[in-house]
Specification:
It is built from 13 helices and 15 strands. It has 429 residues and is of the alpha/beta class.
């Protein structure tokens, strides 16, 4: 057996050598040393079912043999020359993205992280519209650079003391905790209608774009009503403003569609993506229509963006998703998981709401008065970890259990995690 320094030593080194902004899950976190499709293994050899996929990254499974083999072959041939030189993989991947993205999205720019993709998407919108004003949604999260952090609507992630100006926030479509105190559908999508009021009263009247996640991940898997984005697009079109959709967490079959915005029958003007595109290999992109993309003519490059290895991973991911019908599995297993959670909700009042699409599902933990039950969620997550199940958490109150597993999970995997959750909640009760 290999020698590992162990979780305690890692925490000691982390405290000494890593900036304190980086936290970690669990009271007693394990050291993960190996991954195998939907499973993780710690330094003691304990096996865990991963129901979080590294925050929606490992959609095709840890160390997927099909993808890993292609990456290793490419690494041995050509690893990097920068995208100012001609290589084949990144144009082939761009061609493939034009095929699988909705509508007439066609031209891509490759970079390395979701933050960078969102930054680039915002830049493109400014170039095309000649405006620097933006609208974002409350409880959104778009990145860690100055602009993307300024467009993030969750206080704990807005650590910059001097955010960028020219940004306004619209109410997010959080029906369980409506920020406007309304009820759907009687509300007539008032949260969307507020966007027009913001444009008319808080901007120059011509903002560059609104940026939104089709499902808000860090907000706690907040899913808009079906017709929300259609209303948003209508309003933006009236003012010649663009719709940027951030698919960093939601893309690549997670919701049973290749991209989550397809569940809402809307085509964005610009779309960003990252995470699952590389299945663990750092790669991201933003894509737009030919007309909008062709306004970006001044020099732009990303040193590692779309390098031969990352592009190989992206191509392999798209091939694996198609050949293994992961979109259908996301729909089937997502329905099974969601129904199972709703059954547990009837049994345990601490589960206040269950929501999501495909294999992006949240279970919100609440007290009897609907206030966030964050402490109780942490306790349940710790027990589930000890039982061999890794589940995420989100929400502004850090009280939403987040299920975003590899899309290869089986019917038995879902039954196992539901049974473990049932047992854990019964013990807490």
């Amino acid at each position: 057996m290999e020698n590992y320094i162990g979780a305690k030593k890692i925490l000691e080194k982390k405290k000494k050598f890593i900036m304190p902004c980086l936290g970690h899950f669990y009271f007693e976190p394990p050291q993960f040393v190996r991954g195998e499709m939907q499973y993780l293994f710690d330094d003691a050899g304990k096996k865990y079912l991963d129901m979080y996929a590294g925050v929606s990254v490992i959609n095709c499974g840890h160390c997927n043999p099909f993808i890993t083999e292609k990456i290793c072959t490419q690494v041995k041939k050509l690893q990097h020359v920068c995208n100012i030189y001609l290589t084949e993989n990144f144009v082939n991947l761009a061609e493939k993205l034009a095929e699988v993205t909705p509508g007439n999205l066609q031209k891509s720019f490759f970079c390395s992280t979701g933050t960078e993709a969102n930054e680039g998407a915002l830049l493109l919108a400014s170039i095309y519209t000649k405006s620097s004003e933006f609208i974002a949604l409350q409880n959104s999260l778009h990145g860690r650079t100055k602009l993307t952090m300024s467009l993030t609507g969750i206080g704990m992630w807005r650590t910059d003391f001097n955010p960028v100006g020219g940004i306004n926030f619209a109410p997010n479509p959080y029906c369980y905790r409506c920020p406007l105190g309304k009820k759907y559908p009687e509300c007539d999508l008032e949260c969307a209608n507020k966007i027009e009021t913001i444009i008319q009263t808080a901007t120059s009247g011509k903002p560059a774009a609104l940026i939104a996640e089709p499902i808000q991940g860090n907000a706690g898997i907040v899913v808009p009503p079906k017709n929300y984005f259609k209303r948003v697009k209508e309003i933006l079109s009236k003012y010649n403003s663009l719709l940027i959709i951030d698919e960093v967490q939601t893309g690549f079959a997670r919701t049973g569609k290749m991209f989550a915005i397809e569940n809402f029958d809307v085509v964005p003007d610009i779309m960003s993506m990252a995470k699952a595109l590389g299945n663990g290999q750092p790669i991201s992109a933003f894509i737009s229509t030919e007309k909008i993309a062709d306004s970006y003519t001044r020099p732009g490059a990303s040193t590692l963006g779309g390098n031969p290895v990352s592009s190989t991973a992206g191509l392999a991911v798209l091939e694996y998703i198609a050949e293994n019908n992961l979109m259908q599995n996301a729909r089937d297993r997502g329905e099974q998981l969601k129904n199972g959670l709703k059954n547990l909700q009837k049994k345990y009042p601490i589960i206040g709401d269950v929501r999501g699409i495909g294999l992006m599902i949240g279970a919100e933990f609440v007290h009897a008065d609907k206030t966030p039950a964050a402490k109780e969620l942490d306790e349940v997550l710790e027990v589930l970890k000890n039982r061999g199940f890794i589940i995420g958490k989100g929400g502004v109150g850090r009280n939403v259990m987040a299920f975003q597993p590899p899309l290869i999970i089986t019917e038995k995997n879902v039954d196992d995690v539901l049974n473990a959750l049932d047992l854990s909640l019964s013990e807490m009760k």
